[in-house]
Amino acid sequence: MGTVRERAGEVGVGGWWDRLFAGALEQALGNERLRRRWAPRSRRRKLVMAEAAATVATLAVFGAVTPSSRPWGLLLALGVLTVLTCYLASQVNIATRLITEIGTRALDERQLAWHTRARTVSHGVTRVSLLVLWVAACAAWGGEIDVPARVLIPLIGLATFLHVGFPAAYLAWTLPDEPVDDEE
Asked: Where is the chain membrane-spanning (predicted)?
């Protein structure tokens, strides 16, 4: 299989960005404590729910911030929630052993089946959410309803985060408990 750095280089994953973080990801994947933490499915499910809640909270605060008012408390909350959401998303990816982030040539057959299933389900969820957004936009346009940017931008953000984060969240939710050695 090789290291994360070798797999990122060999399959051309994300270019310089992924190679920059490949060492940190490699270290996190090799961390036995993290592996034990996310081995049980119940813990991974709690992690996915926390990530979803943080994402929705981030988008809600983003929708409350207006360029003209600049409420510093909301901007601080937005920054903290954004960092929390990124941290939780990285933990979800680590919990799923980066199966959705690494190119398919670097995966074994079992991982490839999981990767394909996660991408297929995610594509369907994203397609439905975009269709709902499109129908809502058409209804608003046809009824000449003005949709403020503070509503529209978070909805587009939600669709984007759903598209990007759902495959790993789906895997974290559905993968069976990972066996852990009891050598302590």
From this structure: 47-66, 72-90, 149-173
